[in-house]
TrEMBL record:
Tagged with keyword Membrane: yes
Lineage per the UniProt record: Bacteria, Bacillati, Bacillota, Bacilli, Lactobacillales
Molecular function terms, GO-annotated: transmembrane transporter activity
Coiled coil segments of this chain: none
Protein name: Folate family ECF transporter S component
Keywords: Membrane, Transmembrane, Transmembrane helix
InterPro entries (alphabetical): ECF_S_folate_fam, ECF_trnsprt_substrate-spec
TM stretches of this protein: 6-28, 40-62, 74-93, 105-126, 138-159
Organism listed in the record: Tetragenococcus halophilus (Pediococcus halophilus)
Top-level taxon of the source organism: Bacteria
């Protein structure tokens, strides 16, 4: 985690937050019980450049801005907590670490289990007064996990390896 953050870092973080909002709210698919988007791609970059805390903060900012501008459902703070936790996970797996298949898969697995299969069903059960064992909650969630886990793992690896992260990190550190 970077202790001092400069203007260039704030600018890059802001652009990544905006990209997260666009990918999540404009190009994502969302129903009452399921949301599919590629908003995790900018979070990979945030995690690699800024570390767990700033990625979590950026994910919360993106969730809050997206909710204010493009609300599709009622606001629920549990989903904002999900955004923060997913940002922490991306930062943990990609900050100051080489992007490997192991990291990419473990990152996707952690997010799938912790956020998609543990926390989100709890929030949905609370929001819509459904039993936690309801097929309405678990059916779409399990299908999404089976479909998105390999896609997310592959994109974690490809994006992490394709970007010149070392050059970006050194640029952000040297610019004053």
């Amino acid at each position: 985690m970077t202790k001092k953050i400069n203007a260039h870092m704030i600018t890059v973080l802001g652009l990544l937050i905006a990209l997260t909002v666009v990918l999540s709210r404009m190009f994502g698919f969302e129903t009452q019980f399921i949301k599919i988007s590629f908003d995790f791609v900018p979070k990979i970059i945030m995690g690699a450049l800024f570390g767990p805390l700033w990625t979590g903060v950026g994910a919360v900012a993106a969730d809050t801005i997206g909710m204010m501008l493009f609300a599709r459902s009622p606001f629920f703070p549990g989903f904002t907590l999900n955004a923060f936790i997913s940002g922490l996970i991306y930062g943990y797996f990609f900050y100051r670490k080489e992007v490997t298949w192991k990291n990419a898969i473990l990152c996707s697995l952690s997010i799938t289990i912790i956020v998609s299969l543990i926390l989100t069903p709890i929030w949905l059960a609370i929001m819509y007064n459904q039993p936690l064992t309801s097929v309405v909650i678990w059916g779409p969630r399990l299908i999404k996990a089976l479909v998105m886990f390999p896609i997310q793992s592959i994109l974690n690896y490809v994006v992490g390896r394709a970007l010149p992260l070392k050059r970006l990190k050194s640029y952000l550190k040297t610019v004053r």
